[in-house]
Structure prediction request, 1035 residues.
Amino acid sequence: MNYTVNPFQQLYFADDTKPESFVKLFSSKPLLSAINPVFQDANVVLSGPQGCGKTMILNLLKPETRIAYATVGEDFPVDPSMRRFISAGVNLTRSAITEVVQVTLGRGEEADERELPLYFADFFNFWVVDDLLKTIQTVGENPAVFDSLVDLAKLPQFVDNLREQDCWFGSLSGAANFDELRSIISKRIGVYRMWVGGNLTEKDAPSEIRQSKTSLGEPIARTAECLRQSGVIEEGVPVLIRVDQIEELHRAFTKRSRAILLGFRRILNRAFANRDSRVAYRAGTRRYGWDRPEFLNVWGSDARLEARRDYLRIDMDMDLFALGERKNSVFDAFAKDAFQKRVGFYYGKENQKVPEGLAETAFGKSPNAEQRLRELSIEASDEKIDRALGLDPTRDRGEWSDEWRRFLRALFRTGHHGMLDAVLAAAWGRQTGGGGKSRQHREDPPPESAPWRTREWWRKERLDQAVLQLTTRCQQRFMWWGYKDIVSLSGGNITVFLHICHRVWDGFLKSQASIPKERQIDLLSGAEIPYKTQAEGILFASNEWYKKLPEEPSGDMRQRFVEEFGKWLNREMTGDLSMSYPGGNGISIAGSEYSSVDKATVQLLEFLKDAIGYGVLFEFPHASKTKAEVERHKFHLNPILCPRYQLPEARTKEPYYRRMTTLFDLAEKAEVILAEYTAPRRPIEVETDKSQQLDLFGDIGA
Amino acid sequence: MSYRPWGDLEWVLSLSTPKSWHFVGALGTEERSLCARNLLRALGVLERESLAQVNDRQPNKFSNRTTAALDARMAEFRGNGGRPDSISEFSILEELFRIQGFAKEVIAQEQSIVLDITSLPKRFYFPILREFAKNKAVCNLVLTYTAPKSYAADGPLYEDCEIWRHLPGFLGSGADHKLWIVSVGFLVESLRRFLGDNPDLKLKVLVPFPAQLAILRRTWESVFELEKDPPGARFENIRVDTLDMSEAFERIVTLARNVADPPAFAPFGPKPISAAMCLYAIEHDCPVYYPQPTVYHPEYTKGIRESEPKRAVNAYWVKHDGENLYRTGVSSN
Prediction:
């Protein structure tokens, strides 16, 4: 195999990924069964964090992508019954449509707030119609790809029809043919770009657009209607409009900008609220970038957008990838396919056969708890064992009997399985008899029944924490390797998965560079990347992901918060010697606090939701085990950050139950400044209820 | 061929007939932010002044330190004869029309302007420079830039950048751009991300060299960070003197000469090089992309070069007696 190429170099599918590359790299089968609604009528909102695959899916709507499939001789990966559609789109940032906020009408802020959204709407209409006409031309000029989807011979009739539509207020009246129509529209876009670029001297909007502002969505719908009426496209062919970067309408730093951009959003919402049968809209957005209550108001009415009624929401995280839960067949298939395609793309060029199921063979099986301890030596002194089990005087102040100590040391020395038994037995020894009793098990001799071994669930829930505590106290690292670990650390995000693959593959290439050719490992022949190389690559990827956080807007603050949160969780998990909170790799907040109207709390939660939207944190509502509460919300780090902070990534147990004060405290340490929060910090509070913890005492007794 | 003089402020001004100047700059947290203004005043040619106080996103972790530093700078300004009513406050992400309005007010008052870009964010001095360069009412335009002694060592120089987007007013023609010219400075995360999104893009990288010791190591670290992954052929490094705006402009002219569409710029490097990009972009309607930071370290820089204003302040003639010296085809000798 080639030892110089890393097939995972390109992580993101950007808007301008070459269509040919797209064809080779797009994973169709795992995704399309779940996203068929994208190719049908009705409005659809795709939400999910950066890199989850939204752009990839929306790119399928572009005619260039479909042409590329035909060019390379691959079947277009959309069900044949759904291939007859026309699509146009706009990226609100790149098109500069949102730059309308940069100009003024010269009649004060009120006039700007009232009228600039109307210019935004007009600019939007012309941009989308321009792209729609471009698509029509592209599709019509490629009948071999699109069959008879577009009949260019009917264009003159279409132009006559469209020009006469009253929605344009005469602005298209000079268009005698299709080229002139496009030229007029293009000129109008040019005027807008000149204006919002600050190149015009007029104080008001340019005179040529002032009197002919169009209503949002109507010219687009009329264009679709005219295309059908004139026979350019058949009745029943859906016209799908893509809108990208809607969330950028919610980022503003001046009061004026905030008000005007929200106006843009409200007017855009009208297109969704209209539920116009002539066109359907497609939007890609981050989680929380779409449906905060203030974002959903509709221009010119008291109505708010409503999911299901006005649009279908596909949450990529929740609906497809189950937020990276370990058992997730869609993401598993997606990851395997993405891996296979990338390796195939690069090695296929060299006519090297890429065997099926390469991701699983190259990474191999993930370790069990015992195997994760393989770097620890069983031949250790009493002192070292005591330290490993937290029995050293500094931790337990010599409270252990000699009998217990001898027992635990002997257990430790029996091997890696014994190490696990020893640390779990020590945790068991520290636990009280439950029911408010203060007596500890270690006040009696170690029981022969070995409950830390025989109580299957108690043990299973604590294995990761046991490994973490052992490795940490032996100055080693918790290590991850194998296909399942990598998928688990990816948290249901394909970009994270490819990022880990990239760094592991990099490490592998470096490790092979100095080895004689005959001894090099050939992954294409079924060999596996050595576990240490994988573990190092995964740690590198985790640290690098952390370093990349500032690449996103306001990312520095999130990065600082993550650092405090991660370190705090690690301290809690490693310091919890009795393993009372094996699910302590996250934090749970009561629903009453989560929905508080306290201004500071609202601000902090907005910050956290932003972090969730950017995929830095994960959040899940969950049922409380406390009878008085109905619902709680738990927050975890994105699993890719877990190696950096030495935290098990599995979210199998209830996390710490805490109050908002804990989060305020962490935010303050991270220098996340909240305008509304000035109160001095209180000590971190722990809710005392432990009813959610499964322990041994109910059935064994103290 | 035209001569584009630059160098010591007093010497640069002495090349033309004596004039009264309108100073435009920033009241910032850095010591160097008033250096050129004070020097101009000491030379006795400061007629009027308009300063922008550009406020970072609020609140932020530096708010208290920033306020204290601004108070100190204001005291210095007043102590040197400055009037508070010549200062206009702006938000770091202020709308373009307000920034243009600030520039237009200056143009209405004076035909000879010194624009000090030292402490003005790119989001501000790009559109201001465009107004001054394009408006015929401005007959004489000198840019100034004050080199610092050192840069903050206790953390990132700036934080919380906006998304990768064009600077207001620098949208370009909307065409696809085959040629990208970038300059590198201290932090290149956003640029790396952009390159990751666009793996087929090839770039001409203007690397500031020779440069002051204060920036040399960090700049080359940035170059390494930018080019390490993926390495190789997509980058062409071109060394440009940190302070030589004229040379930087010439380099850009040369690089863009054989390309059909105007280049796109990403100015991450020293301000004189960025100003050269700006001047080229103005003439050729090029897009300029920059993810604007929203929080700056209050001690972004410390002191001034060699603690000597005369040596620290560099001045550049841009327009002289109505003639724009930075136009394509007009080069230095």
